[in-house]
Amino acid sequence: MEIFAEAVDRSPDMLRSLKNEGREIYLTNKMGTIFDDFVIGGFFRFQGEFQFQDPREAFRIIGAKRPRYIFFTEKEGLFWLCKEIAKKYGITAVASHGEPGYLTMEYFSDALKARGVKTVEIASLTDYDPWGYNIAKSFEAKMKEPVFGFGTNLTSLTSLKLFTSEAIAHKKRDLTKVSDSKSKTG
Question: Are 24 and 30 in contact (CB under 8 A)?
């Protein structure tokens, strides 16, 4: 911390730059939240008036035979598994990079609706920790938003039944020491 203070003392411009960068990040995040709120409220659509493009389009497959069944994983690196499952069972598969944003959810829900899907069943494969659980629940909650119009049931493939007691004991970690930024309340 002392080194940082010395650097700032020598260069007041650095401090101004850091403050401005923080302000830009804050404003960008605030704008994103406001756009999300307007879309969820049905005031406008990302792909309508603004013509935003979905950067996650390459990480979803709408099922050929049973598009209402969704295999969801938070791991972009598991998209190979999504492709295999989608091909084998004719279901929908999607790999996010963490929690998917409302922009992605709008495109995803529209693609499902274009195939005549009205209700969905979701199976989620996420990390076996609170954050993975929260991502799976958030994906389900977003699908339930009235603007997207799906009633859902969430089935989690990440369950205690998939792990032996020995494997859990070997890999467990103390989650009481979670930083505030990683914990989700409410």
Answer: no
pTM over 0.85: no
Name the residue among 106, 98, 53 with its Cα closest to residue 78: 98
Buried b (16+ CB within 10 A) or exposed e, 123-149: bbbbebbebbbbbbbbbbebbebeebe
For residue 37, give the DSSP letter: H
153-178 pLDDT tens trace = 655 555 445 667 787 777 777 767 76
Distance (Å) of CA 36 to CA 5, 40, 71, 142, 151: 38, 6, 24, 11, 20
Containing H/E element for 71?
Answer: strand 66-73
From 144, 141, 149, 147, select the one nearest 42 (Cα to Cα): 147
The CA distance from 156 to 137, in Å, is: 9
